[in-house]
Amino acid sequence: MAKQIIDYNSTVVTPISNGVNIPVPHSPAGVSIATTSVFIDPANPASFTNKVELTATLGYQSLVDSPEVLVRIWRAGTEIYYGLAGNAFNGVDRFSLVSVQMIDTAPLGVQNYQLIVEDRNPLSSAKIIGPITFTALAIGDDGF
User: What superkingdom heads the lineage (predicted)?
Assistant: First the structure.
């Protein structure tokens, strides 16, 4: 079966390092650093077999100790993905660039996604410095 692009959207908060300065809050608090959305058209037959590929890149800087940066993706206020970004501070390098990819099967209609970060280590400190990009690509089968 051939694939059909149903919709695509992207957000580029900043394409460079040091383009933003967003403190990463400690768990259980989190901060939304980017949003994106796609429209899964109910009138399009390919929408019924949709997969939404979500990709994100974010850069952060460790300020104190060893942050455990948790990256979350939410759809319509519900968490659909989380992953531990790891530890950027190794005594030499305090900077880390993280890439995330996730596949979602979304309901029909407009789907809003949020990229959220938090720090699980209460003794550490980190900030998002960029780049920050977040994309959503909705794909379906056209039936042929």
Answer: Bacteria
Residues in the chain: 144
Phi/psi of residue 47, nearest 5 degrees: -65, -25
Architecture of domain 3-98+108-141: Sandwich (2.60)
DSSP state of 26: B
pTM summary value = 0.93
- Angle at Cα 133 formed by Cα 45 and Cα 106, nearest 5°? 25
Half-sphere exposure of 90 (CA within 13 A, CB side): 6
Average pLDDT for runs of 10 along the chain of length 144: 92 96 96 98 95 97 90 96 76 82 97 97 94 98 74
Per DSSP, 47 falls in state G
Chain-centroid distance of CA 26 in Å reads 18
CA distance 27 to 72: 12
Ramachandran angles phi, psi of 8, nearest 5° = -150, 145
